[in-house]
Structure formats: structure tokens, C-alpha cells
Design goal:
With 411 residues, the protein is an alpha+beta fold. A 6-stranded antiparallel beta barrel has the order 2-11-15-13-12-16. A 4-stranded antiparallel beta sheet has the order 3-10-8-5, with no helix packed on it. A 4-stranded antiparallel beta sheet has the order 7-6-4-9. Strand 18 and strand 19 form a beta hairpin. The radius of gyration is 50 Å and the shape is elongated.
């Protein structure tokens, strides 16, 4: 008769064996089940590679008028958004102060020029007349002294005049001759080169002051240097403005460009002539087009970024894109037409090797591929696959894709 303890041990043994058998059966059955995966076929498409950034719109031809001097806006002939023609009068400033400065500068130039002319001619007319009179008197005195000396010498020869009298007459003649020489020298060289240079500098300064005053006077009448649109008008009639303050801006809004800054890794793909699409949040349903006018030529620091400055010409601006607005630009750096491609998530890398997992007879086969253009969503397959090949994208479970894995394709 079997012992109760022995029977119980055997029962537990049978239970354990049954559990192990069930587990083995479960593992064996599931080891051969297919892993659900998403897949895509190699197909021909047009691929576009692009880079995007923000930029600021600026006119190619821009004119900003400034107040030539502090004063009042006397007349305002235009309004914001108005189309103006070349030479059209825009603003007139109060000219009273400017005219006064011109008159003062003209008087100063006339005075300094007259002084220079007088110095170059030996003095003023009155001074020259006085000097000529002095010279004539001195020359007369020389002639009289010479006659007196000659007479005394004759008398001395006759014993009627002493040697002392002759000596005094000789001294008087010498003094008179020296006086004549002095006056003659003053007539031709009254002012030295240093005096003349200083006065010429004064004339030049007066002439520059007059030119500046005339420029300011001309600036009170502001006219359009070219045809365009008034896109900024920060002043109103009778406003007082400081010297140099902006009065208005004019630009040809049909000829605009965008100054954009691209991060350093993107610069190498930019080149002149590449097509650009432009969007503006203020008009979300409108798109403008352009092209890269000048690719970045150097790296600069812009805030905390290392960027390259790129100039983009807007090709279809018609006054509907405003200066100084912030826009988004998308530069098409590369386009390929009718090429084999796959979703980018199908591509795997192992060092320098690119590969995908083809699905062949419901199993994964690792296939090395050559890659061409890559954008955000797709990759060009330049070699290693043919059109129609089925390639795994990812498993719908947490299973990793591996060589030989049995799979089933799901939507």
C-alpha cells in the first residue's frame, strides 16, 4: 500500500511536468509566429531637399529723408502708402533758419575773401594809398638830402663847409634811403607766408560753411529721388523735429530682397540661383517666390548662433510684401526627378554602411544600399534595390528588426 506522502509528491511532480510542457508548447508555438511590421515599396518619386530659416524684408532701392536741421515740418504733400514719381515734392521744412544761416555764411565768406585779397595786394586800398604817400615823401626826402650833400661837398672843397657838416648831410641821406627801402619792402611783402596761409584756411573754412548751409537750405524741400511708395511716415505737418530725425521712407516695393541667416551646418548646401519660397504670417494664404542672390561668404556671430548671411531676391513682389517684415524662407538646395525612393525611416546605418531590411518570403533580409538625396521624409535609393521591392519600416511591437526575423505586413 502506497504511503500518503509518496502519493502527494508524485501529484506535485505531475503538476510541475504539465506546467513545463505547457510553457514549452507556448514558446515553441510563438517562436514561429510572425512579427507585425509596417512596410513600404520602393517607388519612383520627385525628391526635393530644402533648408528653412527666418529673414527680414528690405528694399533693394530705399530712400530715407532726414531733417537737415532742427525745425518745423511746414508742409506735407504725401500720405502713407502713396505712390510717388521721381522728383515729386514730398515735404517742405520751415526755411527761415536755414535761409538765415546761408546769409550769415555768405557774409563770412565775403569778409574772409576780401581780407585775403587785401593781404595778397599789401593791404586795403586806404592802407595802400597811405603807404604810397609815405613812399613818395620818403623818395622826395632822399632827393633833397642828396642835393644838400652835393652842395656841402662843393662848399667843403672851397673851404666854406666843415667836414662835420658833410658827415651830418651824409647821415641824413642814408636815413632817408633806408626809409625808402623799408617802405618799398612793405609794399611787396607786407604779409608773410604764414599770415597768408592762415587767411587762406579761413577762406576755405568759410566756403565749407556756406556749402553746408546751402545744402541744409536745399534740404528743406524734400523730393523723391526715384519712383516708389511711401512706406514710412513718422511725422505730421507742424511737428518739430531735431536735426537728423527721419521724416519718411520711400522704396520700390516691386524690387525687394530678404536678408536671412542660416545656421553653420546648412551653409554648405546654399548656392546662388537656388529657388526660394517665401511666406509671411500676416498673409498665411499667400506665397512669394525668389532666388538666392548671394550665398554666405563668411561665418558671423548672430546672438548665440554661428550663422552665414544670405541675400535672397524676391521675384514676384508687387507691393504686397512690406519692408522690415519678418518672413520664413525655404531654399530648395537640391531636386531629383523620377528617382527610386523610400520613406526615410526605412534606412539604417552601421558605421559608414547604409542598409534596409527587405521582406523576402515573409522574412527580413539585410540589404546594403547606396543613398542619394535625403530630405525630411524620404531618401533616394541610388543602388541596392529595384522598383517594387518591399522594405520593412518598423515593427508595431517592441521587437527589434533583425536578419531572418519572420514578419507579416500590416497597414
Amino acid at each position: 500500500m502506497a504511503q500518503p506522502g509518496t502519493s502527494k509528491s508524485r501529484a506535485w511532480l505531475w503538476i510541475l511536468l504539465a506546467v513545463i510542457a505547457i510553457a514549452v508548447i507556448y514558446l515553441v508555438s510563438h517562436s514561429h509566429s510572425a512579427v507585425p511590421v509596417r512596410a513600404a515599396r520602393v517607388a519612383r518619386q520627385d525628391l526635393v531637399s530644402s533648408v528653412s530659416t527666418n529673414g527680414k524684408v528690405e528694399p533693394i532701392e530705399d530712400f530715407q529723408a532726414h531733417a537737415p536741421s532742427a525745425g518745423v515740418v511746414d508742409k506735407l504733400f504725401v500720405h502713407l502708402g502713396e505712390q510717388v514719381e521721381r522728383g515729386q515734392q514730398l515735404i517742405q521744412m520751415d526755411a527761415t533758419d536755414a535761409a538765415s544761416k546761408v546769409a550769415s555764411a555768405e557774409a563770412s565768406l565775403q569778409a574772409s575773401s576780401a581780407s585775403l585779397m587785401n593781404m595778397e595786394h599789401g593791404g586795403t586800398q586806404s592802407e595802400r594809398l597811405t603807404q604810397q604817400a609815405d613812399l613818395t615823401a620818403a623818395q622826395t626826402e632822399v632827393r633833397q638830402a642828396a642835393t644838400s650833400l652835393a652842395s656841402l661837398k662843393k662848399l667843403q672843397a672851397q673851404g666854406a663847409a666843415s667836414a662835420n657838416e658833410v658827415a651830418l648831410a651824409q647821415q641824413h641821406l642814408t636815413t632817408a634811403q633806408a626809409r625808402v627801402a623799408q617802405l618799398q619792402a612793405q609794399e611787396h611783402n607786407r604779409y608773410g607766408s604764414v599770415d597768408l596761409s592762415a587767411q587762406r584756411a579761413q577762406v576755405a573754412e568759410s566756403r565749407s560753411a556756406l556749402s553746408a548751409a546751402q545744402s541744409d537750405y536745399a534740404g528743406v524741400d524734400v523730393r523723391a529721388p526715384f519712383a516708389g511708395t511711401v512706406y514710412a511716415l513718422p511725422v505730421a505737418q507742424y511737428d518739430f523735429v531735431e536735426a537728423g530725425e527721419a521724416l519718411l521712407n520711400i522704396a520700390d516695393l516691386n524690387h525687394l530682397r530678404i536678408r536671412a541667416y542660416f545656421d553653420e551646418p546648412e551653409i554648405g548646401s546654399l548656392a546662388a540661383g537656388q529657388p526660394v519660397t517665401i511666406t509671411w504670417p500676416a498673409k498665411p494664404n499667400q506665397v512669394w517666390h525668389g532666388h538666392v542672390e548671394q550665398a554666405p561668404t563668411t561665418i558671423i556671430t548672430y546672438g548665440t548662433r554661428n550663422v552665414g548671411e544670405c541675400l535672397i531676391t524676391v521675384d514676384d513682389a508687387h507691393g504686397d510684401l512690406l519692408p522690415n517684415t519678418n518672413v520664413t524662407v525655404k531654399v530648395t538646395t537640391l531636386q531629383r526627378f523620377n528617382v527610386l525612393s523610400l520613406p526615410r525611416e526605412a534606412l539604417h546605418t552601421d558605421g559608414a554602411v547604409n542598409f534596409v531590411y527587405k521582406i523576402v518570403d515573409d522574412r527580413l533580409v539585410r540589404a546594403p544600399v547606396q543613398v542619394g538625396v535625403v530630405n525630411l521624409t524620404r531618401v533616394e535609393i541610388a543602388g541596392g534595390l529595384k522598383e517594387g521591392d518591399l522594405v520593412a519600416l518598423s515593427a508595431t511591437t517592441e521587437v527589434d528588426l533583425t536578419e531572418g526575423l519572420k514578419v507579416k505586413v500590416v497597414e
